[in-house]
């Protein structure tokens, strides 16, 4: 899931700016050759992954793949922080003990590409007809490309879903279909005296940006336009003010400290009418050990704003191949197998959303999801934009800057002057970020 979004360390970025971290730039990716010397047959194919339900599902099926290639597969599963730290250590040292890498294309791929850590997969995905690269949804497929090169293959996707209380919207004509209707219903249902809130959502400065992105797009805005900051446009300002008002007037106290882990339990415990967050967390609201609203929770597409309904549809996790791997062919065979139409359909049928259009068009793969949620996910995927944060090297720093006006709005402070200041800071950041890319 996109909720565990840790960026590379500041020390790593310092090395990056100094030109020490990576010997190869973007233009050299295709020319990177595998280190000489094929490992012995006893050397396992080493895969580093996030401890995620997708990785767990794949690990249960690896015996089938081992029989195919005649080589043992070793999967190391870590937390997000541990995985980022391990990549920093191993790949900065040009370590050959990593073959397949589970990466966040929107958080890490650009800097990994700059460092020369990811092998170019373009020829492999485009020339393999059976792999059917065109079967992947356009938004996550496009997010896999950096500087014209395919550097990863998406395996897990997510979109924002409007979770709502079915028992509370009956008199409102059903779940809100527009952001304006969401605002009105949230304000109407808020009862602070009873500790009940119309809306709950992420409000923490850095963490809220990814969910706010869909509000931004649906207001007609974006993070960047022609490579320049766009967070002070009228559309972006309107999105900032809308989101701030929604949480300030209809949200719980302390919203500016809330990320997924703090916001989700409020809805799960029946203390909020509406909640927008990743569709991948839906099972939490159906789990009797966690949720008191499992009989009352509904699922709806992201509401339309002035520019229509424009949610994000992102690859939360993808697979790439380490430039330093001595088992590149075997690594590609693993990716080819793990993201094949057959495996994607099987894993999605267990409730883990993939990136292939064929899986989303197969009723059997959607049977694991509640029907209302399956349709919600399908619509959001069709409408989706393939990123939920700016496409820059230093993603976490960019999110900190962009999140400042969100916090101001939630605290009820004037938003426009904070937007002006954040826009100037973001513009300066983009100049420095581009300089990093050139080093």
Automatic annotation (TrEMBL):
Swiss-Prot/TrEMBL keywords: Signal
Signal peptide start and end residues: 1-23
Keyword NAD attributed: no
Domain of life: Bacteria
Name listed for the protein in its UniProt record: ABC transporter substrate-binding protein
Originating species: Streptomyces niveus (Streptomyces spheroides)
